[in-house]
Amino acid sequence: MDTTAPTAWHLPIAHTHHLSASAGPLSFVGGAGDFDATGRIRNPNDLDRQIEGAIANLAEALAVEACTLDDVVRLKAHYTAERDDWEVIAALARFFKAEPMPAISTMPEPMQPFAGQTIQIQAIAQRGWRAHSDIRAVPRQVPEQRRALFGDRKLTAGLRAGEFIAVANRTAEDAEGMVQHPDDGVGQSHFIMERHAETLAALGASLQDSIKLEGYYFGDTREQWAPLSKARASHYREPGPVATVVPCHRLASKEALTKVEVMAMRELRNGYDKYIPREDHWPERVWDWTYATPYRQAIRLRDMVWLGGQVPSEPYSNKGRSVMMGQLLPQTRFTMSYIEDLLRPFGRAPSDLKLMVCYFTSTGTEAETIAFAKTLAECVGGTLPPMTLVPKPMMHTPNTTVEIWGVAQG
Prior knowledge:
Blueprint: E1 20-23, E2 26-32, H1 47-64, E3 72-79, H2 85-93, E4 103-108, E5 119-126, E6 135-140, E7 155-161, E8 164-170, H3 185-202, E9 210-217, H4 222-233, E10 242-247, E11 258-269, E12 272-275, E13 279-280, E14 298-301, E15 304-307, H5 328-343, E16 353-361, H6 366-380, E17 387-392, E18 402-409
Parallel strand pairs: 3-4, 9-10, 16-17
Antiparallel strand pairs: 1-2, 2-5, 3-5, 6-7, 7-8, 8-11, 9-11, 11-12, 13-14, 14-15, 15-18, 16-18
Helix pairs in contact: 3-4, 5-6
């Protein structure tokens, strides 16, 4: 028997990549799936068995960074199956025995990056946070008709593990499971942001403590995106967080038009909750939004650099025009050049990335994902960091094919 054969799982790509990595106090795992040691899905098209396999692989990846499943603060699952969010959250929650459970975000997707895949799981963990003196959790309301899925357990809407805060993503669904403001994306956006503000307040924080906003909306034009974007932005003042918002093509409630989550950081000093100042840089070459926003492109705090979602927009401009229109691989290289620009003032480079989350246009073939990952590897110039790769039938417009954000060691 060849005892030197690899046993760890990996993605089915040719390039060397980390399964997990750490920056500051946090450890990251990208898209953990039901992969075996050859990089293939063990249980093709079987969501329940893939969840079990993906969680086992997640635990294996966390162990490399001296973490366990109990150290997970924020869990994010992109899934492709005829299930609703509550069913998927319940299937994930049973693997997290300790209370409070992590903040679990879910996103239904029409496709996955690799053949036979139905779910990928991203995690942010903090070693030993359950032994900290400052642990706060806000329960998440579950509609009465879905409570049997969870027994007596409480879901987590928001979790504060010391300084790091994760707020689970949500639609504008109320406590009874009814989506508020049907057919009104702006109204839904305000509803969601108001609920997140309430959750953060219960954790001793505010939206202004956000370090990252990530969201989804129905639409394929800038005209559809802009009103919702302005609604979200109105809940911040400068300097705001970095942000990533991309189109979605499925949501669990038919009336839901958008879904948003936030991550934040706030310190406890002498018994008082305090804002943590951030260092930010915005090189002139890096694009700007088409209207004034409070968002930043890159911020550093606690030895971590958080990046906003970078897109192939025209440099030195806020006109929203794309370069290399509709060409995924050239646009990916160009977008990575923005990430390089943003990291440079912090004394960092793409090789310092500890997490990459990549949304890209695809027809759904594994070959397209592999070509995309190859381009990322060429731009990073070394071992790829943990990655979440999310193929989309279309991004913001036919001209824009990619959006990438990440976290780097600061």
